[in-house]
C-alpha cells in the first residue's frame, strides 16, 4: 500500500499536524475574540499580508484613500503583524485618548537597538522604565517653559536673523543651526559656535539615523534574524554596517555631550543647563543608584535634542516656503506685527496673546505640513474592542495625522495655505480643529516638549516676519522660480525645495537685525 512508504506517512503526519494546529488556533482565536470580527480591510497575500500595499510612496495619501474605501478604522497585516489605520479624529480620540491605558505601548523590534535609537524613550514600551524617563524630562522641560529657557530661545533666534541677513542662500543650514544650538545650550549648557561646529556635525549623524530608522528599507526590520548575518553578505551586510555607524554616532553623542556638562559641574564652572541641574540634584540625594540615574539623564537629554531639532527644523522650512508662495498672508501678518510691536523692537513670546494672526500662521504651518504624518505608532497592550470590532493585543495603530489635517470636511481647500481658517472676528476661533492637538502625538504618548517647541517656533516666525520680506527664488535672469510644494522622507518629512529670496523689509528693520545680533553675541 502507498501508506507503507515512510515519505508518504511523514507527509500525511505533517498534514494532520498542520490541520490540527490550524483548528486549535481557530478555536483559541474565536474564544479570545468572542466571535467579533477584525476591522474591515483589503485582502492580503498569504503569509505576506498587505506588504505590497505598504510599499507605496506618500503612505499618508494611500491610507487616506484606503479609509475612504473601508471606513476610518481599517485592518492590515504585514508578515502576521496586525496593523490598524485610524483615519479620523473620532477614531484617534476614541482609541488612543479614551483607551490610552491599553493603547500606549510601542512595538519593539530589533531595529530600535541596532540603529542606536534604544536611548529614545519615545520608543520605549509603556512601562515603569518609560515613566521614569518621562518624569525626568517633564520636571526639567515643563509644560510652562521657564523664563531662562525662553531667553536662550530668543538669543539664538536673534542670531538666526543675523545669519539670514548675511547669507540668506544657506537658509536650511541656518535653520538647522538655530534649533540645534538652542537645544544643546538649554539641555547641556554647551555653546555651539556656528554651522561648522563639530557638535553640529555630531548631532547631524544622530538625526540621519532617526530618518533612516523608519525608512522601511532595512531588511532586519522584517526579519530580525538577519542581524546575525556576517557583514560581508551583499545588501544585508551593507545595511548592518550602516546601522552600526548610526549606533556609534548615538553612543558618541550621548557620551561626548554628557562629559562636557559633567566636566563643568565637577570643576564648578557656571552651567545652568537641564543636565547640570539633574547632576547637581543627584549629588545632593542619598541612597540613589547614581550610575542608573545618570543613564536615565543621558537618554532623556538626547531624546530632548532629537525630538526638538528635527521636527522644528522641518516646520520652519515649510513656513519659509509658505510665505514665499503666499505674499498676502505675509503682508497681513506683518501689518499685525507693525501695529502691536512697532518698529523699535523685535517681537517677544510675551506678545503671543496680542498676535492672533501670527499664531494662526504657525497653526496653519503645522496643519499644512505635518512633520510626522503618522507620529510614532501606538501598540495595544491588551485585547480591546471598538465599534464591535476585535483588536488583539500587539496590534500597531497608525494614526493618520496628515489625513486629519487635510480633511476637506473640516478645512476647506486643505492644500491651500490659509491662516484665516483659524480666525473669527479678529481673534483665534476656538471652534476650529487645532493642529496642536494632533501634530504632537496622542494620549499618554503626547510629546512632553510640546510647549517648548511651540514657544520656539512662534518666536522664530514672529521675528522673521517682523524684519524680512520673503519672496520666491530668482533664476539667473532674475525671474521668479515657481516652487511646487513637495516633501521628502517618511517618518519625518521635509519640504523638498524651500528656496526663497530673503531681504530686510526696510533700513529700520535692518538696524533691528544688526542690533539684536549684537545683543545675542554678548548676552
Automatic annotation (TrEMBL):
Q: What SUPFAM superfamilies does its record include? A: Cytochrome P450
Pfam families xrefs = p450
Q: How does it sit in the membrane?
A: Single-pass membrane protein
Please give the InterPro entries that the UniProt record associates with this protein. Answer: Cyt_P450, Cyt_P450_CS, Cyt_P450_E_grp-I, Cyt_P450_sf, Cytochrome_P450_fung
- GO CC, any one term: membrane
**Chief localisation class:** membrane
Task: Give the transmembrane ranges.
Answer: 6-27
Localization, per the record, is: Membrane
Indicate which residues the UniProt annotation says bind heme. Answer: 447
Extract the GO molecular function terms from the UniProt entry.
heme binding; iron ion binding; monooxygenase activity; oxidoreductase activity, acting on paired donors, with incorporation or reduction of molecular oxygen
Please list the cofactors this protein needs: heme
Superkingdom of the source? Answer: Eukaryota
State which pathway it belongs to.
Secondary metabolite biosynthesis
Regarding protein family, the annotation reads:
Belongs to the cytochrome P450 family.
Protein name per its UniProtKB record: Cytochrome P450
Q: Which organism is it from?
A: Lentinus tigrinus ALCF2SS1-6
Amino acid at each position: 500500500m502507498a501508506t507503507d512508504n515512510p515519505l508518504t506517512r511523514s507527509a500525511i503526519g505533517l498534514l494532520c499536524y498542520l490541520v490540527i494546529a490550524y483548528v486549535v488556533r481557530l478555536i483559541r482565536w474565536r474564544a479570545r475574540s468572542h466571535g467579533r470580527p477584525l476591522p474591515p480591510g483589503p485582502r492580503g497575500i498569504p503569509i505576506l499580508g498587505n506588504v505590497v500595499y505598504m510599499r507605496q510612496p506618500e503612505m499618508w495619501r494611500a491610507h487616506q484613500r484606503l479609509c475612504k474605501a473601508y471606513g476610518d478604522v481599517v485592518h492590515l497585516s504585514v508578515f502576521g503583524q496586525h496593523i490598524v489605520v485610524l483615519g479620523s479624529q473620532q477614531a484617534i480620540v476614541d482609541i488612543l485618548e479614551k483607551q490610552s491605558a491599553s493603547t500606549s505601548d510601542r512595538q519593539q523590534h530589533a531595529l530600535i537597538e541596532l540603529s542606536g535609537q534604544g536611548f529614545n524613550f519615545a520608543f520605549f514600551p509603556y512601562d515603569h522604565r518609560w515613566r521614569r524617563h518621562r518624569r525626568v524630562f517633564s520636571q526639567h522641560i515643563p509644560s510652562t517653559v521657564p523664563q531662562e529657557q525662553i531667553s536662550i530661545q530668543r538669543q539664538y533666534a536673534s542670531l538666526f536673523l543675523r545669519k539670514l541677513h548675511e547669507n540668506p542662500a544657506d537658509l536650511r543650514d541656518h535653520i538647522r543651526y538655530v534649533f540645534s544650538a538652542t537645544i544643546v545650550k538649554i539641555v547641556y549648557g554647551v555653546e555651539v559656535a556656528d554651522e561648522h561646529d563639530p557638535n553640529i556635525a555630531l548631532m547631524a549623524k544622530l538625526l540621519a539615523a532617526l530618518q533612516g530608522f523608519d525608512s522601511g528599507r532595512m531588511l532586519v526590520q522584517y526579519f530580525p534574524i538577519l542581524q546575525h548575518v556576517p557583514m560581508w553578505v551583499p545588501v544585508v551586510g551593507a545595511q548592518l554596517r550602516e546601522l552600526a555607524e548610526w549606533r556609534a554616532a548615538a553612543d558618541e553623542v550621548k557620551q561626548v555631550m554628557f562629559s562636557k556638562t559633567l566636566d563643568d559641574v565637577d570643576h564648578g564652572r557656571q552651567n545652568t543647563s537641564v543636565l547640570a541641574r539633574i547632576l547637581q540634584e543627584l549629588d545632593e540625594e542619598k541612597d540613589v543608584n547614581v550610575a542608573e540615574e545618570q543613564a536615565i539623564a543621558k537618554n532623556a537629554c538626547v531624546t530632548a535634542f532629537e525630538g526638538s531639532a528635527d521636527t522644528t527644523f522641518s516646520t520652519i522650512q515649510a513656513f519659509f516656503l509658505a510665505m514665499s508662495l503666499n505674499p498676502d498672508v505675509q503682508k497681513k501678518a506683518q501689518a499685525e506685527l507693525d501695529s502691536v510691536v512697532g518698529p523699535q523692537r523685535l517681537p517677544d513670546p510675551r506678545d503671543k496673546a496680542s498676535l492672533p494672526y501670527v499664531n494662526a500662521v504657525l497653526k496653519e504651518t503645522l496643519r499644512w505640513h505635518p512633520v510626522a504624518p503618522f507620529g510614532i505608532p501606538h501598540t495595544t497592550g491588551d485585547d480591546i474592542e471598538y465599534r464591535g470590532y476585535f483588536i488583539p493585543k500587539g496590534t500597531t495603530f497608525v494614526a493618520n495625522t496628515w489625513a486629519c489635517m487635510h480633511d476637506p470636511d473640516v478645512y476647506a481647500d486643505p492644500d491651500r495655505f490659509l491662516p484665516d481658517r483659524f480666525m473669527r472676528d479678529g481673534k483665534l476661533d476656538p471652534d476650529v480643529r487645532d493642529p496642536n492637538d494632533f501634530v504632537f502625538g496622542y494620549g499618554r504618548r503626547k510629546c512632553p516638549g510640546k510647549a517648548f517647541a511651540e514657544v520656539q517656533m512662534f518666536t522664530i516666525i514672529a521675528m522673521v516676519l517682523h524684519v524680512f520680506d520673503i519672496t520666491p527664488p530668482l533664476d539667473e535672469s532674475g525671474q521668479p522660480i515657481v516652487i511646487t510644494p513637495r516633501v521628502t522622507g517618511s517618518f519625518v518629512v521635509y519640504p523638498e525645495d524651500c528656496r526663497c529670496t530673503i531681504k530686510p523689509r526696510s533700513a529700520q528693520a535692518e538696524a533691528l537685525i544688526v542690533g539684536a545680533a549684537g545683543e545675542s553675541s554678548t548676552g
